[in-house]
Write the structure tokens for this entry.
Amino acid sequence: MKGVILAGGMGTRLRPLTLITNKHLLPVFDRPMILYPLETLRRSGVTEIMVVCGKEHAGSFMNFLGSGREHGVRLSYALQDTPNGGIADALRSAEDFSGGGPVAVILGDNIFEEDFTGPIARFREGAVIFLKKVADPRRFGVAVFDKTETIVRAIEEKPKRPKSPYAQTGFYLFDAAVFSHIRGLKPSGRGEIEITDAVNAYIGKRALRFEFVKGFWSDAGTFGSLLESANWAAGRSKGLFNSFL
């Protein structure tokens, strides 16, 4: 399985910091944010990875990460022409890279304690999303379950009245059909091609599974979650992540 790190976007919630650099190059304790999703993929057994970023900071990513050899992976790069086009719009930049096979997709601002070795080994077709119970699900795409609470009936993007406390985290497993689903999507009310709409396309075909995330998870895209992530990383500075650099 190949991996895709989505590291584009405008980073508006972290301005003025993101007026200087890309959000995913900001420090989280002792290393740039982009290294956390990269390490998550590597620990999960995914070593052929594409970084999708905006053209404004592409050189910074390439200068820092290079070929990926220093980090135990092989890196490719793609540009998202429209930085505010949405996550799914960024993902379609990786279609040729996928080679018609499955992809593990991670958002560049998502930090996970656990790896995904097991789910990747079990993956065959369709899509898998990873959910986490959160205090404020209104910030995220939220899972809507059926009456048995065993099937995700839909994902609602940033609902005002969430129907569950379970947020869709920024890690996904997709088969090659994801790219045809994305081509059929229209921009949302926010003007973006939403990854939740791609996930809902799988739900409509009864081709979606879900698993729960154990351990720490953060979407480090706000000042509060960035600080939380840095504090967590500081507490683990003598642990697993220290062996990465």
Q: What stands out?
A: The first strand starts at residue 2 and ends at 7. The CA atoms of residues 25 and 61 lie 8 Å apart. The longest helix spans residues 223-235. Residues 2-243 form a domain with the Spore Coat Polysaccharide Biosynthesis Protein SpsA; Chain A fold (CATH 3.90.550.10).
